[in-house]
Amino acid sequence: MAAPSLVLDASTGAPLHAQLAEALRGAILAGRLAPGTRLSSTRALAEQLDVSRNTVLNAFARLLAEGYLVGHTGSGTYVARELPERLLAVRHAPAAPTPARHVDPRALSKRGAAVASVPPLAAPAEGMAPGRMAFRMGVPALDAFPSELWGRLLHNRWQRSWRDLLSHIPAAGHLPLRRAVADYLATARGVRCVPEQVLIVNGTQQALSLTAQVLLDVGDAAWVEDPGYSPAHGALIAAGATRVPVPVDAEGLDVEAGLRLAPHARLAIVTPAHQFPLGVVMSERRRRALLAWAAREEAWVLEDDYDSEFRYVGRPPPALQGLTAEARVLYTGTFSKVLSPALRLGYLVVPESLVDAFSTARVFVDRHSASLEQAVLTDFITQGHFSRHVRRMRVLYAARQEALVEAARRELRGLVDVSPLHTGMHLVGWLPEGVDDRAASAKAAQAGLQAFALSAFQLQGRPRGALLLGYACVPEEELAEGVSRLARALR
Amino acid sequence: MAAPSLVLDASTGAPLHAQLAEALRGAILAGRLAPGTRLSSTRALAEQLDVSRNTVLNAFARLLAEGYLVGHTGSGTYVARELPERLLAVRHAPAAPTPARHVDPRALSKRGAAVASVPPLAAPAEGMAPGRMAFRMGVPALDAFPSELWGRLLHNRWQRSWRDLLSHIPAAGHLPLRRAVADYLATARGVRCVPEQVLIVNGTQQALSLTAQVLLDVGDAAWVEDPGYSPAHGALIAAGATRVPVPVDAEGLDVEAGLRLAPHARLAIVTPAHQFPLGVVMSERRRRALLAWAAREEAWVLEDDYDSEFRYVGRPPPALQGLTAEARVLYTGTFSKVLSPALRLGYLVVPESLVDAFSTARVFVDRHSASLEQAVLTDFITQGHFSRHVRRMRVLYAARQEALVEAARRELRGLVDVSPLHTGMHLVGWLPEGVDDRAASAKAAQAGLQAFALSAFQLQGRPRGALLLGYACVPEEELAEGVSRLARALR
What we know:
The structure is a homodimer of 491-residue chains. Chain A is of the alpha/beta class and 491 residues long. Chain A has 3 domains: 10-88, Winged helix-like DNA-binding domain superfamily/Winged helix DNA-binding domain (Arc Repressor Mutant, subunit A, Orthogonal Bundle); 145-387, 3-Layer(aba) Sandwich (Aspartate Aminotransferase, domain 2); 395-490, Aspartate Aminotransferase, domain 1, CATH 3.90.1150. Chain A has 16 helices and 14 strands. In chain A, a hairpin with a 7-residue loop joins strand 11 (417-418) and strand 12 (426-430). In chain A, helix 2 crosses helix 3 (53-66), helix 8 (204-215) packs across helix 12 (355-366) and helix 14 runs parallel beside helix 16 (476-490). The longest helix of chain A has 27 residues, at 385-411. Chain A starts with 15 loop residues before the first helix and ends with a helix. The interface between A and B is large, with 133 and 134 residues.
């Protein structure tokens, strides 16, 4: 072996065996140690470099494991004839990326083009600082996230069960998490289900997307609340379904109107406990009418209970799903609003007769949700942290809502009429009759505030204008400051 | 305040303030401290319990934060009038779950019913010990996963950037990961792309599902390889597309046959670098013919490069995607086969003109992939661990393949003909003419071995029978033992 010039330096902090391995790898890649060259014995090399024989053995072991050296017992160690770099890289470095030729939009499928043309939710202040900002909606108080605790659970869970966390799990999710969710929903929301009915999904968007895929065909009609969470409707459009906007009044979705507009719709998507965005609770009468319609038409109801955790006054109205023994209601909720949207975890509770169909469909969508998050969340719930976190957030959000209401009463009189709500993470700020809410939202954006126009969530008609004011992720002083800025912007 | 009988015990290990908080919470929930009761001052309670005043302050702070107590500055601390339990639970515990009424399968949509009826991949040994098992396919050597290193990256990344990891990220994925993937694909696979063309997805199944959604309408034809990875085809069925099985021969997909069967298909799904399951490389002639067809018909090619990392002999054939400046090829790969299927991370490289359509469609499917896994994987790649891991696995899998081939030559002569392949994670073991591979697979299953029948992946015709023998996740001695058992089972 022509000894390559190897300089090892004990002072760099890198272990000597790692330095030696890198130096040998460099010599091999540079051709100073040619393919097929027999290396000196580990003993000889150790003497030559004045390091321990273990150092050399460790360096050789690594290069053998990575395929730079090959060893023949009893006959020494050689530089590999085919180096990993050759096996792991194509012959020619590719040319610089060629600008793709323009693709005719007609190249997309019809529904692909329809989905692609769904306008993103007009986010006036998109691109501004992430996290908290008056009056951002739908984001929890990430400033109050128990990050140390979560980090500890993450660490412990990985240490304890990384092997289990590396294999595929059932499409329906990690069973202990499904059990924990079933228990929680029974107590907190009056949902009737066994754990097998709970499917863990990547948030409510996937719940809607799966539901549309499994239950709707192209051209099928689906009732949606108007105003409602229209930004999610891309899932219906992707399924080729027809949205039927059904008006919402003080009793929630107007079932009678739905019956007039599309009596034979296959699906109704509703937020009965706390209508988005108006915050009204669906009346008992309407609930009964909706369930009767679904039973009669053999249609489905997707109940989105999106931020039911945050109740400030009185007992929560129970979920629609638990009101009936008829298995026509699918129930969905998310951990995005309680913990973090980046977890990508939610749940979809389906009638027992649909469990297999949904599980199979999920396999072909993306197999299952990430295992580690599911396991850590299970620990978080079963060790009692989830309940404590919800209680803490409830107190925090109640205080933030109060701060918003008080500041608005003080500073927005005549400009925006903000009333408290019993639940949720945002308030509706009504504008005086005739004031255009999109113009108001644009003015707010210019002042660095995110305040969605109610009409951005309205599909038909022209409701009284309002701004939607999120408060959950905004500290009290920032809310007060935001209200002052909003007053100046609108005046 | 009627002092509840509180017994604090310094020897339990639980901090005194936590014990005090729990004791007070218990007294409140049991009604011993009634709603509205004014508590003793922290000073008085500290004296009474013989603990420090800080202990009492900490306990009070926790109960205030969770809503059990309410504090009025200057006027003391009171038991809340509405307890969290009341606000967080519905009135009636739900009745025991009622068995759902049977739902007529016709209640599903047509495509829902079609997807639900896709048989799961006949897994003969399903339910057996997870992880390694002769001759499990498509699972990497989880026994060689760098779990300590990954745990450290996980911990460091969480510590350093938990705030960023809690917010939504772009649908297309974490940009540093998209950059790292683009660099890797350019070098290793000759893929031509800028990072913006790389979409991070939850594995190749989601890549296929998204592609079908954005590019296919109901009734559109898609060429699929036959035999091929038919277990993934549920995504085509869910999209209402028609699968056109196109035969595979020693040159890969028979493009001429595809032209005869469905010249106007909109999509072809291929594995050109290493055909699944036969392992053949698509010839230059066929590659050109396929690209010419796509250009002429304005059709799309989805190139699934599913285990291209593991090349044992010679340079890898470059990706189809990089061969052409025509933007008709979508390229997908996964980290499931290199690292772990539980990460749920893969990539889809699309032509620049499709980036927006795919990103928007992804929002409505499930928004984005889990943030933490994306960030940790980025660190794993950019710190050089990914390259090292691939090199190590290549050497390990080459040795495992060799062990399988040697054992098969020794013990399966006349029963199963196993030849080495230059790439991949499984081998094809041909059975003698006339031997039914499903029967052979069933015999193997009875002997505790997972060996899929080739015909399970064949949509049309009756090819020569073969068993697919995975080796990547099986240690050498288990492979040898598995071969002995297989010989006994088939004899």
